[in-house]
Amino acid sequence: MKIRTAFPYATVHEDVRVPLADGTRLYARVWRPLTDEPVPALLEYDPHRLTDWSAPRDRQRHPWYAGHGYASVRVDARGHGNSEGLPGDLGLGAEPSDCAEVIDWLAARPWCTGRVGMFGIGRGGTAALRTAALAPDPLRAVVAVACPDGRYEAGVPHPDGPADGNGPEPANDPGGAGGPADGPAAAQDGPAADGDGRPGPSAALLARSAALLALAACPPDPRYAGDAWREMWPARLEALVPPAHAWLARPARDDHAGTGGPGPGGGAPDLHGSVRAAVLAVGGWHDPYHDTVLRLVARLPDHLVRGVIGPWAHQYPDREQSPGPAIGFLQETLRWWDHHLKGEPTGVMSEPLLRCWIGTPSPPAPARQGPGSRPDPGPGPDPGPAGRWVGDVAWPSPNVTPVTYALQGPPVLVRSPQHTGLDAGRPVPSGDPAGLPPDQRAEDAHAACFDFPVPPGGAPVDVLGRPRVALTLRADAPAGQVAVRLCDVAPDGSSTLVTRGAARLAAEPGGGPREYVFELGGAGHAFPPGHRIRLAVSSAYWPWVWPGPRAAGFTLDPAACSLRLPVRRPTADTVAFAEPEQAEPLGVTVPAALDDTETRRPARLVVRDVAAGEWRLEDTPCQDGTRAYPDGLEITEDAVETCVITEGEPLSARTRTEWRIRLHRPDIAWNVTVDARSEIVCDATHFLTTDEVICAEGPEVVFHHTWEKRIARAPG
Known about the structure:
By secondary structure, the chain is α+β, with helices and mostly antiparallel strands. 15% of the residues lie in helices and 34% in strands. β17 and β18 form a beta hairpin. α2 (96-107) packs across α3. The radius of gyration is 24 Å and the shape is globular.
């Protein structure tokens, strides 16, 4: 990583309040170049608190843009951070109408040319896309990173709603990630031919309800909000609603899916048909939202869109996190801004419509990192897997041909153990090795596997796009689910997860077989000669998919099943990116006395109670401990997510998350703690949710509320 200290422009920054039409004032930080000439403005609008949670990340890029001649502006969403107003849907984090007002305000500033760009990651990226769908006149360009576009995703379990994984960041790694992931990802869309659709809610994602509650319950900072924080905080707390309520109650397909409802695409016109700004869509193969990029480049006019998908988790592509490698993302986006906001000939629109990384298999991340389950991130990045960049001038690409592989063998009964899926990795990995799926051999042992050898001495099989499966199944029960994984099996037997998908099953009247056809998540992967392409089919995938009321399986008839791979022909590609660089880091530190790596709990731990037949997955979704910020703020955070299931008893499935955040300013004796707890259990017909938030100033509890709700399970 190159840290840049010299720029074409000297810069200055100030904190301001942006007025909205309803009288609400949003808190903003503006970095501007020192020049007498007006410049274009760049907006990042995000519910993460700009004075603490996202401050390290913001410091890496906003001053960098300002140094290259842009007014770069970071705004706290309504009801979050130091902004006034009440929080809305915690899964969304931003209203596009608010963003449009901020854009108009920026365009009217005397230091602005009237041209505005907008960018963001996760919920911030979704805010940019939803705002672009409103087509405000000053908005000319967008960069949307690792975010849903308001559609149900194929590679991610239900429920829907953006997620970030960009909380308080590790002080010993200025490009690191930590803190509460922003909540559930978009829905698993494995549509069956008969429209049965997604398989059901994801326990791993429902566990994040507490994370969103904890973050939204944090008060404004008196250093920036002044005495008004005492009035703003109680009103904000009274408006909180646990996001799990909406996620569980949401039907499989309704108006939340990008058509104006309160889902990720809701509250804005049809996204793909309404966008007038140029969109640079960026995703990572290890992030749940990469299929957003494929949809945008397929549906937006070529003169308005370019796409990049690389070997990244849920992070900005310049942040040297596993698996990598990182790219010069800021330089690439500068080409985008200079072309669309300044009219400069940067050549960015001469790039291929879609640039993708096609990776080759390497040992799973924990194996590369050694025996420790939470390795200390060193000064350099994980070298990551090998691979190459390719470019396609259209999508669907003329370089990609569907190749069908027929499954072979007699009918097979698939009745996977309930704990199948514990090696799935995190639904929204943020760059630490524990979040990525490990070797899949244990999972493969619980599935029906069908292998297709890649001939030794021949060419690799390059896959780019979304594989499709056609499965003929006879369900054991009126309802169930099927999970499908595509893996790369090496000669030594190690199995690397490439992509996956799932669908809900329904028994055919009379007990006969039924065909299910659905796509898996997108993939860019090269299967080397001598390896095997493996399709693994299971009847359980906990905790990614909540089990049905019965421990049911199905009978699969291979003679009527197939796998269709999007195989890309070899091409001579010249796609390349600059090396990553950023502005100087913020300088967040971990007090030496508190940086006790030996006593930290493992980042991800599986525990088996042999006598009880119980499996427990414990996940630590943030870097626990205390961080000291240069402005005197100290943040202490601790969280654990637990998913439990007992073998043979699907109704034993339960999740529990506990999240604690302490905000402390010793110089003004400000000491606030937020404790959030979410728990979800089920019976045959309903989910039962309990959410609790306790807030205290010093020893005094100022807010304590418990929500309990019984929500009917959807059929299946």
